[in-house]
Amino acid sequence: MGEIASPPGPVHPALPADPAELAVLLDRHAYLCDDGLATAAFLALRMGRPLFLEGEAGVGKTELAKTMAAVLGAPLIRLQCYEGLDASQALYDWDFPRQLLHLRAAEAAGVTDVARLEGELYDRRFLMARPLLRALETTPSVLLVDEIDRADDEFEAFLLEVLSDFTISVPELGTIRAERPPVVVVTSNRTREVHDALKRRCLYHWLEHPSFDREVAIIRRRLPDAAERLAGQVAAAAQRLRDADLLKPPGVAESLDWTEALVSLGVRELDPEVAAVTLGTVLKYREDQQRVLADGIDGLLNGG
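The chain above was modelled as a monomer; its predicted structure follows.
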């Protein structure tokens, strides 16, 4: 046993020269970002530091990681966090059924060397890599640690250890070290506070909901078939919904869903009747829909 380097792979393509160039590259993949976000993402690439993105759901945190993977020509490896997630589920598992089959085959072949057989059972071919190990062994790659705020404190501390040196210890095999650390994006919807130790390891950026003009531009960029007036109406309505006292205000993702639904219906201009029957694409809580309908769709569309 000893230190095991990850398998060789292609090197990262040339990184953008500055934040403006990165913003242009992201735009080519239909992701529009402001100067602050472009700068944070650029510095994360240049400095080799994880990028910690925090903000309301639907503002584009996960989408940025996906788009950065597309810009870099690297696979996106996603670790979706949830309550109860532990290290083994994020790192690796041994493939016990295949190990058992190998053991039976060896016994049938008359293998009696116990030490040799044990060594074969814990060979790398029987190790099933989970997201963290896959990211370390894949060069280049973008590792998305999505919704870290949903994981437990213990997993957060474990993740900090992995991100500190990008190595993983497998007792039966040794230490696996990344040949080239992955680009790491960590997201949080701030359902709880993430510990300072993890944030200090990362570069931090808070994503706001976009301005009206930027939201219109995002809708038009992602859904070019949407009429300009329709995009403006959806963006204006979404802005008003965010100012309302709702359980779950819509993010940009919901604005895009709403617009896509309207385009699928052949709608070029939003009216109260169509808005009422398509509210489920933008508001995902019954109480929110009832409140908007009670207040009047006309007010939502016209600002009244």
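The chain is about 50% helix and 15% strand.
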